[in-house]
Amino acid sequence: xxxxxxxxLILGSSSPYRRDLLARLRVPFEVAxxxxxxxxxxxxxxxxTALRLSRLxxxxxxQRHPGALVxxxxxxxTLDDLQIGKPGTHEKALAQLQLMRxxxxxxxxxxxxxxxxxxxxxxxxxxxxxxxxxxxxAELDAYLRIETPYDCAGSAKAxxxxxxLLARVESDDPTALIGLPLxxxxxxxxxxxxxxxxx
Length: 199
Prior knowledge:
The chain is α/β, with parallel strands linked by helices. The protein has helices at about 15-25, 45-65, 90-100, 135-145, 180-190; strands at about 10, 30, 70-80, 80-85, 105-115, 120-130, 165-170. A hairpin with a 4-residue loop joins β5 (about 105-115) and β6 (about 120-130).
């Protein structure tokens, strides 16, 4: 397949971090913001929430862009089966970090590549285990005031100063924690017949 024959590639996300990650692949893409309800369903497992939302995001964008390959992604942080979402405020973010300090949490970075030409959706849940340092309240508060990660699940941006909060990161995909698992995505694009390296 020549590069001219490739379908449009659309990232269904408002996240600048996902946009920066996708740009690493050096392929042309567009960005569109999905408008979906991200509330977890009653009794829904955190990994199921992330997978469902990643697919809903892709489907919402695919309806507006027939013939495109659409990327949807969502991330959920869990500790002891408790779902930890985006804090929204300084107080909630501090409470999250206090809960997680000195402990290991799991980030579910879900990915959906939806081929709107044929309706085929590829899904993956890439898990990252993160151990937080046992930092003082003053250190956690200082971090939050510098980075203000209130729109970030788990309140720690590993792509920024949040890396100082972490003692250990375990994952098969180094980009998953930032929010877009590129190892999984490049495999999905290859499966969909979308060349990354021009082959």
